[in-house]
Amino acid sequence: MLPIYLIFMLLYKVHLVATKILTPLTHFLPDDLFGVNAGRLVAAIGLVLLCFIAGILFKLSFVKRGIRYLEDRILSHLPGYSLLKSKASDTLGEKIEHYLATVMVEQNQTWRIGLLIEEMQGLSTIYLPLAPKNESGEVVIMPSASVKKLNIPTKEAMLLLKNFGKGGISILKQN
Questions:
Q1: How many Å apart are CA 3 and CA 164, to the nearest integer?
Q2: CA distance 7 to 20
Q3: 141 beta partners
Q4: What is the pLDDT of residue 52?
Q5: Which region holds residue 59: left if phi is over 0, alpha if psi is between -120 and 50, else beta?
Q6: How many whole angstroms separate alpha carbon 36 and alpha carbon 18?
Q7: CA 104, CA 114: separation in Å to the nearest integer?
């Protein structure tokens, strides 16, 4: 409930700022348009147009390259950014270029849930999150033969960890 409240509060504050900025444009309009304050209506329309233009800009290749550069050089150094991005892309149903695949890793006759960071020359770099808080864990490099890719989204794997592995056996048998 709190995140929804924060989103609406943020939108309200942005709308207030937009209203102050766009108020000079409303002097030639009547005070009320369609029963709504003209300044607020112009601000709302301005915000919708701004979002539309931003959406178009984010589709351009040079903007995508800039975002990728920003992620590779700065954001990737923030703790948990890759994990958070992978969870968000699962939630939104997007496929991202540097997607963290969900894997099961065999170690000492046991299986652990992890995320495949990279795979090269028969070796795999795996992030093994801890249960129930998956923001911390360990990174291991191991032979790719000990890694089994799972056909489940990152979000579902993290929920599995949050529930202390409940349902993990059925997932392992399905894959």
A1: 25
A2: 20
A3: 125
A4: 93
A5: alpha
A6: 16
A7: 6
